[in-house]
Every structure is written in C-alpha cells, then in structure tokens.
Amino acid sequence: MTYSTSRPITLAFEHVSVRFGGLLALNDVSFEVAEQEIVGLIGPNGAGKTTAFNVACGFQRPTSGTVSFPELGKRGLHPAQLAKVGVARTLQGVGLFNHLSVLENVMAGAQSRPGGGLWSSVMGLPGGLRHERVLRDEAMGQLERLGVATFAEALPGGIPYGIAKKVSIARALMTRPTLLMLDEPASGLDEQELDAFIQLIIELRSTMSVLLVEHNMDFVMQVVNQLVVLNFGQVIARGTPSEISHNPDVLAAYLGLDE
Amino acid sequence: MDWWRSFFRQESTHSRLIGVTALAALTLAITFVLPPVANSELAGGAAIAIVILGLSWLIGWSGQISLGNSGFMAVGAYAAGIWAHHHNTTPLVFTLALAIVAGGLSGLIIAIPSTRLRGPYLAGLTLAFAAAVTPIAQNFTSVTGGEGGIFLNSLVTPSWFGHLFSGANAVINANAQWTADLAVVVAAVSFFFMANLFHSRTGRAMRLVRDNDVAAELMGVDLLRTRSSAFMIAAAYAGLGGALYSLLEASVRPETFPLTLSITLLTLMVLGGIGTLSGAVIGGIIYSFSADLVAHVNSLTGVNPTSNLGANMQGIIFGVLLILTMMFAPRGLVSLRTPIQKLFRILRPRRQTPDLGELH
Ligand SMILES: Nc1ncnc2c1ncn2[C@@H]1O[C@H](COP(=O)(O)OP(=O)(O)O)[C@@H](O)[C@H]1O
Ligand SMILES: [Mg+2]
Q1: For residues A105 and A167, is the Cβ–Cβ distance under 8 A?
Q2: Is residue B211 pLDDT above 90, yes or no?
C-alpha cells in the first residue's frame, strides 16, 4: 500500500539506514512529508522513531541513504542550521531552558533570525534593543495563542507538565517553521487540553508541514493525513489513518498489541 | 510605570549608562576623601573587578570554567607593558586596547580546543595555560625583562590634576587619587559594556548553551562559536584588568600573576555572587581591602606575617569567607540584597495604591 501526493515535498527520507553496532535501528526507510501535510510516525517502542528524528535533524548520520528538504533546497543539515531554514523540532519530554523565564524560552525560538550580533550586543545599539522588544511581543503572542500567557514570567521548573509542553510548542512556532517536528507532543496533556491541541495542529496545517511521533492513537488518528508505521526499523505500512487501521500487518505488529 | 520598571531592570542602554555613571561618580567622589593608601588599594580593586566580571560572565552565563584567568591577565599586561615600555607617549586608551585584543586572542586560542572539553578537562587545560605563562615570561628575558619584569612609567598624573592638591604630601595624594580615578573610569566603561551584553541576544545565546546545549542547537545557536566567544570576551576582560593592574603598579612582573591568583579570582567571584555586575563590584571591594584585612587578622591573632601561617593568611581568610558565604548566602554576598530589601519593605508603611486600570 503506497501513499502519493502531488504537493511539493518538504522532507524526504530515501533508503535511510542507521546501524548501531549489530543493531539496524533504521532499515531502508523511505517516506515523504508534503507541503501542508501532517504525517504521523508510529510504531512500538524501539522501532526507530526517535532515531529517524535524529537523522532528519543531523544529530545522527545515516549509515546509508539520504535525508533531504526538497522544498527548502537543502540536504544533510547540521542541527544548528535547521532553525534558519525553517525546521523546528521539539524534544521528547520538555527540553526547555530551566533558568530562563517561560517568555525568554519562547524568545529563544527566534535566536537564529538575523540582527543583534556580538557588536550590537556589546554596544547596546538601539537596533538590537528594538529587535528584542519585537521578539518579546511576538513571544507573548505565541504564549497567548496557546493559552499560557499567564506563565510568561515563571521558570519552567515551576509550571505543570502540560503547560511546559505547550511552551515548548510555542517556542518551536517562534521559529516560523516550514516543517514542524514534534516528538510525543500529546503526552501529559489531559482530555480537554488534547482537544484544544488537536484544533491547534489542524490550524497549523495551513502554514506548515508537521511530522509527529505519538503514542496516543486517538490523537494521531484525528490529526494526521498520512501515517508511516515503523517496526524493527522498517516501514511496514504507509497510508491514510483509515487504510492503516485496516492493515492486517499493522494490526499484527502494533495495534494488535494494544488490544 | 513601564519606564520606571524597565529602568530598574536595565532594559535600555540609557538606563545602564545612567546607572553605571552614577555609581562611578559616587566612587570618584569618595576618592577625594580617602587617604592615598586606600586610593591605591581601590585602584587595584577596580582592575581586579574587571577580571572578576569577565570570569563571572564565562562561568555564570556560558557555563564554562576557567582556571587560567591569571594567564590571560599576564598576556594583557605584557602586551601593554612591552608596548608602553618602547612607546612611552602612546595614549593610554590605545595601550589598553592592545591589552584587550591580546587577551581576547589568547582566549580564542585556548577556546578552540577548550570548547570541545567539559568540566575537569576544561579546567585542566586552562590551568596548564596559566601555569605556562609565568615561566615563559621568566625565560624570554630580552622581551619581558625576565624575573625583574618591565618598569613602566606611563601613568603620569596630569598637571591640571596635580594642581588640585596642596600641602606636604600633595604629590603622593595626587598620584594615588589619579590612579584610583583612572581605574574607576576604566572599570565603569567595562561594566557598562558587560551590562549591555547581559541583556542582549548574545547574552541569551550563552544561557541557552549553558542550560541545554541540544535544545540550543535546535534554536540555531552555533555551540562552538558561542562558547569560544564567551572565552574570548572573558579573556579580553582579564587582559584589560591585568594591563591596568600593571600600569598602576608601574611594572609588569611574573610574580604578579601566579597560578594562585586564578584561584583567588574564582573565590572573589563566588564571594560576590556569580554572573552579576554587583557581584564583581563586591569581589573587587573585598580584594581592595584584603591586604588590610590580612594585616589586621595577623596583628589580632599575634601571628608573625613572615611565618608560614602568616604568609598563607589570605588563603585562610578567603577560605573561611567562602565557607561562611556558602552557608549563609549561597548565591554570593550580592544575594543579601534581597533580605535587606525585604527589611526596608517591612519598615516602610504600605501606601494604598490607586487603581490605575489600563496604565498597569
Ligand atoms: N545511540 C544509540 N546507540 C545504540 N543504540 C541505539 C542508540 N539510539 C537508539 N538505539 C537503539 O535503536 C533502536 C531504536 O531506538 P529509538 O529510535 O529510540 O526508538 P523509538 O523512538 O521508536 O522508541 C532501539 O533498539 C534503541 O535501543
Ligand atoms: Mg522515542
């Protein structure tokens, strides 16, 4: 069962394999994320989902195969280059900066934008200050959008897990991404927060592509256009949520385990 | 009320300029009433405060440690000293700029391998650098003057300043106060630039790398560049402080920059409070009066200053101060401000605040 789209491709995995010693964490993995598409990467624990994210972000070099960003005209990016070309990723867990206020954490999402270099910083030039004020307002706007603006001055250690998750998404949005990569974004959210989050993700689709890893199947089935199912490092199925939910291989390998 | 709040958070360059200028002006006024010995001590303290500030930035903001700051001081001091020795008429600003560049470059050279190292390895490398600097200075006698160092007389009190003084010790008083005033002005300028850095995007990049380097990289922060520029800036501050200190002492000598000075700088920084401007000021003040303090303790306890115990009294006092600080003000003496502020808030009767509505 294959999945095809006529839209431009934002992210492409082509025959990517990653070997850790004797273990093949990814085995000839190929899939694409098209423009304005939400793709879910699912599979049992240890299937290779986080490894796939790490390869896409340049934290892990593929043993063979390539990862490219055709729409952005880039391939094999270094992690520090991602934000600049419009790729944002949240880390599994929370991954916030513990000694910076929530607001500053979100401002950090715009760290790669031009302006405010070393010289301007040292001299305290007005351009740099104006830049900071603009970022502050924009970051506040992102917090408001996610409904957590009241926590702006708090430190990440002092806020509930669900709020911290939202802050990390606000920070990723601050990058103004073309491709948003979310590693288990729904974990730790309660039912009500989940509904709001589903609305947000669907809303984001109009301006960006999303690739997400998630265990919460109710959530995944409601938001994604395409599912890529990994098992033991291999893609065992690709398709729309309804196709996947009727795929006997998938049911045997993954969904079956839950029932 | 916004301007008021932003003034005290020092969010604008103007407010930082006003704050630093006010503090400098106050200190300059004090130098008019201090005896010459105290003025000389103050001058040394101001030079050391610059070095402490650089170290505080490196450790508190970028999360890297350096035991090599005595070495960076020496590099700045020798660069300025060798130049000033041959070109006595060079304006002081230029000589100090040379020290900043030399210090910064040495920092950058140490930073390139250092930024790949963490914790004890980084500490070890910077320590090795500081240990190497003094023997080099001792051996390249033709350039550095060897053990005896280089004599410097480029800090000449201008005659207009000298005319302000009269009486028996006019010359001594004028010279001591001139060095103190000069050092305070140089320190004020460096504090102003650091205050800007603290509140800038570069300052934030440092804290991102310090807190979570994986996430920082995903924000587009270049780890190597950020870490090495932190080192470069800290070393430039050390170079400036070292050069200023030597100019005040009228000589550059290897014995001014022993390895133990690096430890003293770290201690002073922790005593004052890591990563803050006021912490560095407090560290500088403690340094200014440490010689007096040592002499006082020696005479109180009847310890012979030339004995083994007497010679190590400074280390002992700093050690005790460090332990006390860790126990009662773990974030440095600067954190004592909060209890004092609380006390003031309690003492002052609460005013009824009118509802300002939108203005808030
Ligand atoms: N750095 C590594 N070194 C060795 N093995 C690893 C490393 N990272 C992941 N693995 C292994 O690769 C497999 C896939 O891991 P991962 O991508 O984290 O799975 P998932 O995120 O789907 O749970 C697992 O068997 C894991 O133990
Ligand atoms: Mg995982």
Answers
A1: yes
A2: yes
CA distance A193 to A201: 12
* Residue from A51, A53, A55, A60 whose mutation best tests the ligand 1 pocket (most atoms within 8 A of CB): A51
For ligand 1, say whether the CB of A225 is within 6 Å of any of its atoms.
no
Burial B276-299, CB ≥16 within 10 A → b, else e: bbbbbbbbbbbbbebeebbeebbe
Ligand 1 site, residue A49, Cβ cutoff 6 A: yes
Nearest chain A residue to B194, by CA: A122
How sure is the predictor about B251, in pLDDT bands with cuts at 50, 70 and 90? very high
What pTM did the predictor assign? 0.88
| pLDDT value of residue B11 | 67
3-state SS track over A77-130: CCHHHHHHHCEEECCCCCCCCCCCCHHHHHHHHHCCCCCCCHHHHHHCCHHHHH
Which of B269, B288, B285, B281 shows the shortest CA–CA distance to B331? B269
How many angstroms separate the CA atoms of A243 and A233, rounded? 21
Highest mean pLDDT among A58-62, B162-166, B327-331: A58-62
The helix/strand count (H/E) of chain B reads as 18, 2
